[in-house]
Amino acid sequence: MSKATVSFFWFRRDLRLEDNIGLFHALKSDFQVIPLFIFDEAILDSLPKDDARVGFIYETLSKINSELNQTESSLLIKKGKPRQVWQGLLEEFDIKEVFFNKDYEPYAIERDESICQLLEAHQCITFSFKDQVIFEEKEITKADGLPYTVYTPYKNKWLEKYDQENPIREYDTSQLFSNFYKSNFDFPSLGQIGFVESSIKVQAYELDNIDNYQETRDFPAVDSTSYLSPHLRFGTVSIRKMVNFAAKTNAVFLSELIWREFFMQILYHFPKVVTQNFKSAYDGIQWRNNEEDFKRWCTGNTGYPMVDAGMRQLNETGYMHNRVRMVVASFLCKHLMIQWQWGEAYFAEKLLDYDLSANVGNWQWAAGTGCDAAPYFRVFNPEIQLKKFDEKGIYVRKWISEFDLGYGEPMVDHAFARDRAIATYKAGILK
C-alpha cells in the first residue's frame, strides 16, 4: 500500500487553531496537513497521574479535535519519546514538510534540533516560526547586539519596536481548513495516556477588569487578575491578540506581558539560570535549607497569614495571586534562608501557569540572585504586606479556615529573620 503524501503541523505550546502562525503557513503548503500532538514521555514521566495541566492539555486537544471533525479531519495523538514517534511517522507517511512554532527552553531547543536532523535526513523540509512571543530572543538587543539584563531598558526598546509594527498582524486560518488531511484518527482517553482527571481546573481568562488593572492588581481579595497566564503558557490564546488588546487598553497590563518576554530571552541567552544564580557573586551564600521549615512553608503553616493563605491557595487551586507570590518567595529565601531552587521546584510542581523562564526569573528576583533582582537587603515584612494589601483579612480568611480561632504564632520573628538574612548575604556575597 502506498503511503499518503502529506505535510505535518506539530502542536506544542500553541494549542489553538486561530491566529497560529505555524499552522497558517502549513495550511498554505502544497500538501494536505496532518495536525499532530505528542505527549512527551520525557516530561510526563515525572508528573503525578492527576496532574491538572495534563488534564487541561487533554481537554484543549479534545476541543481542537472536535473542530477538526467538522472539516472531516482529525488530530493525531501520539505518546512517547518525540524522536521515536517521528521515526514511526516517517515509516507510515510520505512526509514532505513539517511545520512547528519555536520553543525557547533548553530542552525544547535540543529536542527540536534532533527532530529536524532526523526529518531532513529523510528529505523532509522543516519550517519553524515565531508564535509564542512578539519579539524573540535576538530581536530586542542593546546597540552592541548583546542581550538586555535589566528590564526597563528592555521594555523601552520593546515598546519602540512594537510601535513601529502596531498592531501586530494576526493570522486568520479559518479560510484554509480545507487543506487539512481527511482522517478519523482514534482519539485516546485520558486513561490511555496514563493520567486521571484532576479536581483542579484551569479557569477561563477574563479581560473585563483590565481597564483599572493598575489600581486593583495588588489586592488579592479583589480577585481582579485576568487568569490569562496558563492560557499563554499553553498557547490556547494568541499572544498577538493579547498584546494588541493590552496596547489599546492598559499600559501596566502590557508591561506584565513584556516581563514574560524579558524572562524568556534571559533564559535563552543565559540557560544556566535554570539551576544556577544569574549573579555568580551570590554563590557563596550559606543557606540554612532546613527541611522541616520548608515543609511548613509548603503546607502553609508558617504563622504568617499572607504567606500561609498563598500556599494554601496554591495547593488547593494551582493558582496564587502575584503580589502574594512575591511575599511567599521572599519569606522562603529571606526569612527561612532556604535557597530559591527549592521554592522554584515546588512552584513548578503546583502552578497551573508554570513557565520555566518566568518561574526561574521571578524566584531569582525574590532571592536577589537574578538579573534585575530585588536588592538582597529588601526583605518583605509579611505583616505589613497583609495590612497594605488585605487590611480586612478577606483573602486570608478565604484560605485559612482557622484564622479567627486563635491563629498560631509566627515560626520566626521578622526582625530577627531580617537581620539574619542581611548578615548572611553580606558574608556570602563573593567580592
Automatic annotation (TrEMBL):
<protein>
    <submittedName>
        <fullName>Deoxyribodipyrimidine photo-lyase</fullName>
        <ecNumber>4.1.99.3</ecNumber>
    </submittedName>
</protein>
<dbReference type="InterPro" id="IPR036134">
    <property type="entry name" value="Crypto/Photolyase_FAD-like_sf"/>
</dbReference>
<dbReference type="InterPro" id="IPR036155">
    <property type="entry name" value="Crypto/Photolyase_N_sf"/>
</dbReference>
<dbReference type="Pfam" id="PF03441">
    <property type="entry name" value="FAD_binding_7"/>
</dbReference>
<dbReference type="Pfam" id="PF00875">
    <property type="entry name" value="DNA_photolyase"/>
</dbReference>
<dbReference type="GO" id="GO:0003904">
    <property type="term" value="F:deoxyribodipyrimidine photo-lyase activity"/>
</dbReference>
<keyword id="KW-0456">Lyase</keyword>
<dbReference type="InterPro" id="IPR006050">
    <property type="entry name" value="DNA_photolyase_N"/>
</dbReference>
<keyword id="KW-0285">Flavoprotein</keyword>
<keyword id="KW-0157">Chromophore</keyword>
<dbReference type="InterPro" id="IPR018394">
    <property type="entry name" value="DNA_photolyase_1_CS_C"/>
</dbReference>
<dbReference type="InterPro" id="IPR002081">
    <property type="entry name" value="Cryptochrome/DNA_photolyase_1"/>
</dbReference>
<feature type="domain" description="Photolyase/cryptochrome alpha/beta">
    <location>
        <begin position="5"/>
        <end position="134"/>
    </location>
</feature>
<dbReference type="InterPro" id="IPR014729">
    <property type="entry name" value="Rossmann-like_a/b/a_fold"/>
</dbReference>
<comment type="similarity">
    <text>Belongs to the DNA photolyase family.</text>
</comment>
<keyword id="KW-0274">FAD</keyword>
<dbReference type="InterPro" id="IPR005101">
    <property type="entry name" value="Cryptochr/Photolyase_FAD-bd"/>
</dbReference>
